[in-house]
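queue> pop job 88
queue> type: inverse folding (structure -> sequence)
queue> payload:
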């Protein structure tokens, strides 16, 4: 009899906890998120000309010379694959890693041979997630001469966009200044 009583209590507790943690809690949290933070709760999706073009939280591959290029992605089987978030896990002395860096530096220098500035590290190395949607302001500024030349616009206009869209550290303490590449490229198209 005692075993049946304990079994009945366990089943009731299982059903109650399933209802609370599997249904009521997620509904409550989702409702609060939708009410207070609708943009973030729905993936921080960006719409352009009535079409969803991406999320400001996941990077995209830009390779045209008239756009800012994102940080490289090591996700497989294609760049910025959110289903396979990862870095290369190569050490800094790995020959494959060094070879990839050389190829990326050469590609940047080939598209803008007059640019003699040091290539920013975030334009040639992937992050641990491989999904970074942002680059450093220096990485954006490095690309200004190429973009201004291809688009036939003054460099100062492009620099102004970078300054407008640069996000500072959280609470002036956490993280680093950064620029969202998708938002930057949209602003370029709207010039």
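queue> result:
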């Amino acid at each position: 009899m005692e075993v049946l009583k304990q079994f009945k209590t366990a089943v009731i507790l299982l059903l109650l906890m399933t209802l609370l943690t599997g249904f009521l809690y997620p509904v409550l949290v989702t409702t609060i998120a939708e009410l207070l933070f609708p943009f973030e709760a729905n993936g921080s999706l960006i719409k352009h000309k009535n079409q969803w073009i991406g999320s400001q939280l996941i990077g995209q591959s830009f390779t045209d010379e008239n756009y800012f290029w994102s940080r490289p992605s090591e996700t497989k089987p294609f760049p910025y694959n959110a289903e396979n978030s990862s870095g290369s896990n190569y050490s800094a002395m790995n020959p494959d890693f060094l070879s990839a860096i050389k190829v990326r530096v050469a590609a940047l220098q080939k598209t803008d041979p007059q640019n003699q500035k040091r290539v920013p590290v975030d334009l040639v190395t992937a992050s641990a997630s491989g999904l970074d949607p942002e680059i450093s302001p220096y990485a954006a500024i490095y690309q200004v001469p190429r973009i201004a030349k291809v688009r036939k616009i003054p460099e100062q206009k492009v620099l102004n966009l970078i300054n407008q869209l640069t996000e500072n550290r959280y609470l002036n303490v956490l993280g680093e200044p950064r620029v969202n590449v998708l938002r930057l490229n949209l602003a370029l198209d709207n010039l």
